[in-house]
Protein: P-type Zn(2+) transporter
Organism: Rouxiella silvae
Amino acid sequence: STPAAITSGLAAATRQGALIKGGAALEQLALVNTIALDKTGTLTEGKPEVTDTVLLADVPIEQVLAMAAAVEAGSHHPLAKAIIAAAAAHPPLTADRRKALAGVGVEGWVNDKHVLVAAPKHLPKNALTPSSVAQISALESVGKTVVVVLEEQRVLGLLAMQDRLREDAVSALAELKNLGIETVMLTGDNPLAARSIAERLGIDFKAGLLPADKVQAVAELGQHRVTAMVGDGINDAPAMKAARIGIAMGSGTDVALETADAALTHNRLSGLAHMIRLSRATRANIR
Ligand code: ADP
Ligand code: MG
């Protein structure tokens, strides 16, 4: 292979929002025929906002928000940032022994009481009343992510959050389709919200995936397809590693940016099609 072709391919990619880490990654990219993408922070902006609060106990909503924000403190998850922002207007509480439960939620102790903020489906059976379950489904059906706030296993309330699609998500996926590449969205979010978002994007999806499930989904694709995985490193870094090519969002975590084979600078999803085109052209040049 000619180093000059590779060098100029890498440089051209960089100008178009795609950072490719070396000739080996460039060559592999030319073979990719399937791209799996994380939802939150990848296809969406990863800046959700709390849109609805539902009180389910005799506690002021400000207190429910403050408790949730206390256990979310220190979490880099986009949902954590949304909850902390929503609680910012109220006097803060602090939590001890905070712990992230990957793909599930967070927990901690506020005033020596156990506080859990988690996805509804990970709660014990019968934790929610049928009417709460119906409220959650209604919120999820319009693309919102709902978390439940519990104190000592007592449900205090629901927080619904909504994120925006990246403005170039639809066009970037269309470009990949034109290149003959299959795409699938992998998400830990609930199936109803995932469907609502996937329909807007026109993409297949798998929902309710824990980080290990994302790894398995990528491994299964990899048995028959040359698969790249695009993520922001929050709950999806292992899946990025499991793929033939891992692609990090430019705003991704340090771990994601370090382990990835390529990155989308300025979070430009359109960089994906550029990467593929350049890698194919470079491959043609050096053969
Ligand atoms: P995605 O695949 O969309 O990037 P994640 O795997 O990061 O989603 O998270 C999956 C689900 O786990 C979220 O939709 C949420 O219900 C729950 N979750 C994860 N982290 C948190 C957190 N810090 N606070 C509340 N809920 C969380
Ligand atoms: Mg994510």
